[in-house]
Records
---
Amino acid sequence: MQDTAKTPTPLATRAILRASGLRKTFKMGESSLEILKHVDLVVRSGEFLAIEGRSGSGKSTLMYLLGALDLADSGSIEYDGQDFSHMSSAERSRLRNRHFGFVFQFYHLLPELNVLENTLLAPMIELSWLRFHARKAELRARAADVLAQLGMGHRMKHRPRQLSGGERQRVAIARALMNSPHVLFADEPTGNLDSETGRQIMDVLEKLHQNHGQTILMVTHDRTLASDADRVLLLTDGRLVGEIK
Amino acid sequence: MYKLLLILKYLRKRRIAWVSLAAVMLCTTMVLVVISVMGGWLRMFRDSYHAVSGDVIIQGTMLGFPHYEEMIRRIQALPDVKAAAPVIRSFGLVNIANQKRLGLQVFGYPPNIGQVNGFADSLFRMKGANEVSFGLIPERRYYSPPGFDPRGKDPNTWDGMIVGTGVIGLRKDREGNIINRHTDTIYNAFVVLTVMPMSPDRTSFDIADKTLRFYWIVDDSRTKLFPYDSNTVYVPFAALQKDLLMDARGGEPARTNEVQIALKAGADLHAAMGKIRQIAFEVTAQRGHDERFSYEVKTWEQTHGDFLAAVEHEKVLVTFLFGIISVVAIFLIFCIFYMIVVEKTRDIGVIKSVGATSSGVAGVFLGYGLAIGIVGSGLGLLAGWLIVDNINWLHEQLGKTMGIEVWKPEFYVFDSIPNTMNPREVAVIVIIAIVSSILGALVPAIRAARMHPAEAIRWE
């Protein structure tokens, strides 16, 4: 979790992510499909922003662009004043590792690794073998703490196939939080869960936001879930058409 | 750190990759066994024939050549020469204790033959002796066998004969130790040797002048060369020379049909051969050249050059063919790894989303290929060593259970299959196996590296 003071939701202050004039087109055989059409967006530090849209509206694509998982065809995205499009692939990788965390609809845990190893993935990628081993005890303790706070402290040696959907998503959240990301990206985090389990996951995200000031960008098709956010933007046919909340 | 963890996890848990591992292991084993046997055969051949030849040979015809004593005297004065000895090679009819009658090679060796070639090392009683003795065994008393006419010769004055182990049917265990060496039986065996000198006009063997001589067996020789061990007996040089009418008589100088020369360690073989040839030609020129007694001066390699070259070519060819088969393993690894990378597309996307670079992801799969290569070649080395080390026992079992005899000594010259590994060859084969495994993983690793994280995460 972020080492910030546990205060009620701070008022959104400085822009941490700024997107201008984003366009993204996908080639589908001989034809091409424009998914995003001139999107402007600001994500402020400490806010919980939801982007709501129907299936095929481009919300996941927008999230991937904002999370430096993909590059826009035109437009710019700045993180803390730095434009993604001027970064190399390696620099974007480093950005994702140190400043962003991702939670996906289908959890995407690595099946060969246990819960603890999945959680430690970000520092294992960041650190060399020697440096990881030098900090191994500290990192394992932190991972155990994060997992415990998410209610998974007793399942650290289990493999993903031994966990329920909700448990896997908790582990995915723990993995995303290990390197204390500035922005947590959540793509339909409850899309593969039943309503009760989904509600539990949303509670986790809300707690992260309220108690730790975590900046969260969530994409969802569910208005009920989106209403948990501080701000909800509506994405329709590749355009942000309005702010619902 | 994540690369090492994923490589080890994949190595243990991705069972389909064990097929690649098995392929690397089998190819490594196959090539190791083939190269060890072929290479060992070549090495044994070179070493063994070198051991029975000396370093340089003056080789004449069956009629021999004269003035060899002067040649030897002058050759031994050369700084690079350790020793020289005359040798007579002929053939004869051998009657062993009235139980075996064979046509065999007969070699006449002088006592100092052990200084020139490896004959002394092949002996049982006189192993490694500087001077090989054909004298009767001192503590024994010899008696004429019942019903045998020694033609007036006291059995205790007969010469000693050394026989090849195969001539008297000595058998060996897996380690090469003779297992039916019954001392008393062998050294009680008398031998009647009949030789025929060549007629002075070199057109025929002179049956009228055939010589019969009686011997006692005083030792046996195991050179590990089948043509020698199963087809040769060794007698004193002087006795054979006399029986073949090659000693000095009627004004004619004594002849031998071979002079073997051993060089000192570190001597230049071809340079020494040149000097020895010069001396031989000078002696012949000074004493008068007789066309009947021609000879050649060769190194031991040239003497056996054709056969050595054929064996070397065979080794290269067989290695090449098995190497091509091993290329199949590269394609197998490629297919399996490609399949794994496709299957792992989403995982690759996730790893990249958490911050792994393209080169890092490529490193996972190249490292995986390296791990397969190391483990596979390691297991292949172990299996290869076990097979090579026990190959003669395995061959024996094959013969007992299935009646198959792959290694026939009369064809392959040696009485046992070579069973040693050359460390340098082993290292080369293992390195090639590891590199091949990495090569097989290369294209899949590049594919994994080039995967777009967003597309990979969406992949179904």
---
Amino acid sequence: MIARAPGTDLPVLLPAGDALRARPDQAAALGWTSRSFTPRSLASLLALFVLAVLVADAQAQAAGAPRESVVTMLLKWAPLVFQGFLFNLLVSVLAMALGSFAGAALGLAQISLLAPVRGASWIATQFFRNAPWLVLLFYCMFLLPFEIQILGLTIPLPAWLKAVVGLALPVMANVAEIVRGGVRSIPATQWESAEALAFSRRQTLWMVILPQCLKRMTPPWMNLYAILTMATTLISVVGIQDGMTTARAALVAEQRLELFIPMYLMLLSWFFLYCYPIARLTLRLERRFQVRG
Amino acid sequence: MSAIEAFFQRLGTAPGWNFSIVYDAFDRARFLEGLVTTILLSLTCLVLSIIIGIVGAWLQGSTLRVTRRIVQGYIQFFRNTPPLVQLFFFYFAIGSILPRSLNSSGQMEPMISNLGWAIVSFSFFAGAFNVEIFRSGIQAVPRTTVEAAEALGYSRLGIYVHVVLPLAFRICLPALNNNLVNLVKTTTLAYAIAVPELLYAAAQIWSEVFNVREMMNVLLVTYVAIVAVLVWAMGRWERAMRIPGYST
Amino acid sequence: MAHELGEPVVVATRVEKRFGDAIVLREISMTVRRGETICVIGPSGSGKSTLLRCIDALVPIDTGSITVEGVEVNDPKLDKLSLRKRVGIVFQQYNLFPHRTALQNLMMAPLHVLKQDKAQVEARARALLAKVRLSEKADAYPGELSGGQQQRVAIARSLCMNPSVMLFDEVTAALDPETKKEVLTTIRELAAEGMTCILVTHEMGFAREVADHVYFTDGGVIVEHGPPRELLLNPREARTRAFLDQVL
């Protein structure tokens, strides 16, 4: 039976989960075996991309005019679009770091013994989890000041930094959920034995509970990072130059209809090549920790 | 103008909180239209993505390896690429190669509107997650229950329809609800292709009336409210589907 | 049990079954006649449960043949429905459908698989529930029933398909002693009415009273078989003796 912690929608790893265990007999009865996506299938995806490029190229040649081929155009623009893509990755790393720190603090606040702290942090978590990422991004872009004054120093806040904060907010809320779920998944017996050994609550948390949680929290945390990386494309909607805007600018510059599909497919493949290994690693870690748990 | 509207208009001058959507009929109409569009978009994509999820989970059990590969490819593609880029891919890249037709005012318009492409893109996006959710729900149905159905003479389709799906659905419900909430949040992406949903309507209003702060707050509160209503409704549904004595 | 034994209903001839490298059934031959009650006893892992599943084509056999009323189980073009109509099997873990009431569990297969008339099926189902003394639990869900009650519902469910042969796979192993008795009583009555039954069981007392013939299996082979009085009180083989010494 799939086990899930009440009140959280994230795949919290509970000790009793046998949902991920392979069931070959049932699979046979239903006439199906689940096959994972092998490197061979990955190759066929890339083959599809190459095929699309070649078809587009053929289309261009059929048009007759002696213009650049699709492949040359792609290669011409690829470095620039790739730079934009790297900027997406930079934003994702920064937002993840910022959001994880804030989220860990928020998550621990949710298990505080003080009711007002618990209540306030619960409200904050629910609020930022349920708000659309794009709206939060707009919020930060428009309403954060363009410079802040601390201790007499004037620090300018460039647009992309505001975007990082805007993306870090939902990350913070989701990390808080992961942390809270992780802590709650440790059996109560651990708390009891620590208490019997005269550990204080803070000592129990830092020396007994959190080290055990860390492993369980890693797969959902990695999953969140993959989601965040894909969400960084939202910054193009609020006017920041990233991989998406560069790709669209390239398409506008070239004004060639056959370039549209290959260009978007190229950008999609880059994201795929970055996020897919993360997804596989997450799956592998999940299985490993389930078995041991 | 009613008392409420007058109150909000006064609020606009002092202390300067301009909630034009309350007192201005045009803005109000635009805002409500955006809200309706968001809700309709969410519901349509929800229904379509569930259908895609059920069909996909069924196809994953196919004996043909090529079918299974195609379904897996679809899932991995839509789960590991940004939904915004998917949306643009559908609207700009594929939309540009589809034939155009003459509309009533004599202009060439694309076959599928931006709203249509938003529905297609989000349904496939959410559908990819649903296939995984349904698959794990199906796998969580105990093997012995399936064996009992087989022993009673049910065909593979019969087992799926009468035994596995009802049980798997109840197991999946929490994850499905989570997916629905994500779908509502994802509809904001349609802003990027000028679909007149809630975010787009709000952006139009604040670009004219210059009440960004107020509109942002209204937006946040509205979305959180929509999601809260959804979560409550889903909770009610979950409780209604509960089987006495069977713990999920 | 003294009543007329009819023509052979289940004939197994030199059946072999492997799982990977392990040989689970080896040179199994047995003949079961109509109205006969057979008990199969033996240590765990001796292949008894597998044999029952092979008879109902839930597990395919590698060599040999099993025929049920003339239908060859090993036939690649076997119409599984025709086999499953004749054979009812009750498992150790009851395997009722948790999302349906007891009455619905009984009625489901005749309605969906055999496509029989609803009124007739309901009448038959209620009669069977009365027979297993659970009429008042017709509208209860499996989660609300005790283990013994669930097992009796499972027996009634298989009977509702009007089989010619009933297979019981250690049906009392998961029950406590009091509830065991209720289920064994039900099976005893069934056997007395003339149903052909094959039981895999550890209940030696039951085997002695009710069985017409007892088979002892060990390591996938039939070591010895005979009437219960002979086999249980005066076994010929040393292995049988060793097993009975342990168990009785």
